[in-house]
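Quick log. Single chain, no ligands specified.
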Amino acid sequence: MKSFQLSEKSSVYLEPTIEEKEMKSLYFSTAILNRNRVRFLYGFEEIILEPLYISKNKLGKKIIYGRQYGTNEINVFEYDKICNIKILGSEKFYPIVPIIPVLN
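-> predicted structure:
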């Protein structure tokens, strides 16, 4: 949600429009297909992400799964909290698939 503060006591929250949500999906889908990293603001934190999968959570809100650059864990990010998306076209990534040994 976008927040605009009119005064110290009141603020107005604006829901993202359908076009904004579709643009986010387009950016993330393009990045997933081309295996590009993306950079965006999540809340007040800048994130560089290797996007893996777009889905919806139990509440019906769109989310994206991905691995933050430099870590080995998969994180979930809500679309409503993402803004200023940029595809880092020159940097490609290759997903690491964990292989679990099977014991007989």
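The chain has one domain: 13-88.
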